[in-house]
Fold this sequence. Notes:
The protein is an alpha+beta fold and 375 residues long. The protein has 18 helices and 12 strands. A 7-stranded mixed sheet has the order 1-7-6-5-2-3-4, sandwiched between helices. Strands 9-11-10 form a 3-stranded antiparallel sheet. Helix 3 links the parallel strand 2 and strand 3 (88-93).
Amino acid sequence: MKFKGAVVVFILTLAVIGGGFCFAEDFYSAQVRDISDREYEQAVIELIDNAQESIVVGMYYISTRLKANNPVKMLLNDLVEAEERGVEVKIYLNTKFPDVSYEELVGRDEFKRLQDAGCELYFIPPGRKLHDKVVVVDRRYVVEGSMNWSIVALKNNFESVTLINSPGLGKEKIARLEKIYEIQKKKEEDKEREPLYIDSIIEKIEVKKALLEDEKYFPMMLKRSDRRAMDLYLILLAYSKKLDKIEFFLRLEDVGLGLGLPASWDDEALRRQVIRALRTLEKKYNLIEVEFYHSSDAYITILPILGESFAIETKSIGSRDRKIPQRVKFLLLIKALLEKEGKDLDSVPQKEIMRRFHIAERTLEKAMNSPEVNG
């Protein structure tokens, strides 16, 4: 009986799989040819040289500052020649690289030469990465695979590439590139930074007592001068409270400004610092889990901490209008916790505060003398 049951399950599984992959209406009729490795260059040159109407290139990386007589130079020369004989040439280029700025990339001589010849260059805004390696000729011949236009890729690497003769696929590939550019360009134009200050998110937050009393959390951040990690975690708590969720997306640039990073910094610089602080909270303190999406977003999960909580007004620890030292912010949290317990900060012996919250004597004395605590 077990054997028969297994056969039935197997048959049903095949039926489900077979039904699940019946997408005939989504497939295009096509002829295909493998042009991997060293066959690529000659095949693409022939396509460009014989193009009648249009050439569309979507490319992650194109080598620039080229010397004569190399394969990339020849491909770019062929695009110029095609444009000069009346073929419409459009090139969609990735601009998101760790070692070169957008301005430096788009100003390179090879790209200017293409533009001067009449080729249309569309530089994808650097918020997202265009990872395509595709050429579409006359809206029907699609060359797609792993091949960038670099000397190493064309001459040395093993690169898998397919030439596909399919008008339907060609039109869809072109429409996709056009849509990507339009969407990313609009996002770049409409994008407004909105600093995520803690006191602009919500009026009060709930803070676990363990964050102050357990030496591995805020006391350790104070000892290590991890000011940014503490500030960021408080922002995350506020955002979580506002959404009433422990899992949520966050825009990294807005968080960077909320942490007091310079508004003159570009988005990439802001993101790097916030990512570093998020990794610190995840790896050093085990307070969150984080996943990064599309470079500008992070998906945060706030991990649970056992024990009681206390409330504090965000305006008392916010830093939108003033820079509050980390030791003072920590003491303000201690003050709010003691008030919940019916105690006054001044009435509790300093040695008890030092012992309970793992704070050094000199650090406590400096914080006690601050106007934020005494005001």
